[in-house]
């Protein structure tokens, strides 16, 4: 069994994204030989567990930045789709038939959102949506791989994919339970302690607690959001916490209050932790979680609370460079894409995000794009200190210690965990369970 002492940053980055790698992948068995990434793929790391995930996020983020990617990057993603419409985490031989058991709802959900954002791929999108509908659980949820109990993150991602593809989640149902009904089953209501209310758990249970990695994607979906998240000029009051009358019956969260309750929970957690969320690695001290913080920003902006997301967005600007650019294999395209999506949503300058040109950082991690935004368009950025065009200003670590000029938040700088990908919460739950010596209880990984 994997021990806590062996849970380093590189293990975290790989195992948290391991599609279908339940207990056997966490045991003391020889590691498989690394797979060399195809030339069309963003990033230099082994794509076995995150190829489709990171490619989809990279393409979504670049589309939001008006970058036209190389045709090979898009054809690689569409070529990974299985005949039945789903996507696995990665398949080295796209000509070989897929094993349906290894198809991945998270990869499918982000691929659908990427191809929708790019436009012109309606057939692939429609097949992906059909796969999601066919593999919905009877309680309205989705599991990571087909056939297992649903997870909040997988269900949230699937709901966002349906939203992006204009397939109403309220009308996508199994056994009378819609996708929104399934999502609601993970949200904590008045029966939970006050600090937990509105948050989402990995899976329901008597001792389940709200978790940032589960809450972010679920909250974005509950707010009717999908990737990329559109910016907004709204500056609403702080989100209203779930109202729980004293002595009242412990009920679930009403659908109309779901996004507000989730937003209130996230704001409370961000305020309590210096404008970032925390990740607790089994056997290690808690560490800042840049991935969960990114999802929190996106969900808060979508829910109409950009003002409450501003501090976390600025914290990411001051602390995200190492996460995105200094991983084991250089630039982590999923992390760089996460920050670029945050910058776009929070109306920060993606060409000078805490000193880093996120657009160029992500562009340089893959094949040369077909076209970039014009220098004139980039120069129109609201930040006069921006680099004005792709091709400059990537910076190095010591140049990236300050906050962006858009927002000034009095919070201390904390070193982020290294090697973190824009991971999905379900697999963190599996890793934690394995490290504790308990069976993994999420998304069908037996």
From TrEMBL:
Keywords: Metal-binding, Signal. Residues 373-396 are annotated as: Disordered. The keyword DNA-binding does not apply. Gene3D superfamilies: 1.50.10.20. Residues 373-390 have a biased composition (Low complexity). Residues 51-144 form the Squalene cyclase C-terminal domain. InterPro entries: SQ_cyclase_C (IPR032696), Terpenoid_cyclase/PrenylTrfase (IPR008930). Residues 1-27 form the signal peptide. The keyword Hydrolase does not apply. This is Terpene cyclase/mutase family protein. It comes from Kitasatospora arboriphila.
